[in-house]
Design goal:
- This protein starts with 5 loop residues before the first helix and ends in an 8-residue tail after the last helix.
- The chain has 10 helices and no strands.
- The chain is mainly alpha-helical.
- The longest helix is centred in the N-terminal third of the chain and has 18 residues, at 44-61.
- The mean pLDDT is 94.
Length: 182
């Protein structure tokens, strides 16, 4: 079985629920994520989709084929507890692993009350990529059009808060960004 690509990850994320209960509760408990630190995304799903599009635009501008980017690579670069927890929760990871992650998240947020690389490292210890990938590979994918629609909504929200993101999109579009491949 080939590794899950970033475009395939995005298709799966597009179908997943935006506000699962444990993620919502965890964000409130650790005061990181939606509603905290002037984050502009309205859900971790939107956070994921917007972030993936940023990475797609950057890859395209640097002549990196989008299909060559693995989802594992994206997972390895995360530093946001709620973003990582959300994916694990909606992918159907076992309650016992989610409970372990909640404990680790509370401890990590107590040490550093905002996103940081240490948070990502801690979450990857609880949720190794192979576990997340296995769960995601068993899930259905959204259609290309539904995925693009969801990603556009997420990125538009991001642009309203960060004007540099609009410039990034315009640069990628000027170069001919292939929306049907993303």
């Amino acid at each position: 079985m080939s590794p899950l690509s970033q475009p395939e990850l995005k298709k799966r994320i597009a179908l997943l629920p935006a506000h699962p209960p444990r993620t919502v509760a965890l964000q409130e408990r650790i005061q990181i994520g939606v509603g905290f630190h002037n984050k502009g995304y309205r859900s971790q799903k939107e956070h994921w989709l917007g972030w993936i599009v940023v990475k797609e635009y950057n890859a395209y501008l640097n002549d990196v084929p989008l299909a060559s980017i693995t989802a594992k690579r994206r997972w390895g670069g995360l530093g946001c507890i709620p973003m990582m927890f959300w994916l694990a929760e909606v992918a159907g990871i076992q309650d016992s692993h989610l409970a372990k992650a909640e404990e680790a998240a509370v401890a990590a947020a107590g040490e550093c009350p905002h996103d940081c690389s240490r948070h990502g490292k801690i979450m990857r210890q609880v949720f190794p990529w192979v576990q997340i990938e296995k769960a995601l590979l068993e899930m259905p994918s959204a259609s290309v059009s539904d995925t693009l629609r969801a990603a556009k909504i997420a990125y538009t929200q991001l642009e309203t808060l960060k004007p540099a993101r609009k410039r990034l999109r315009l640069q990628a579009e000027e170069k001919g960004f292939p929306y049907d491949e993303a």
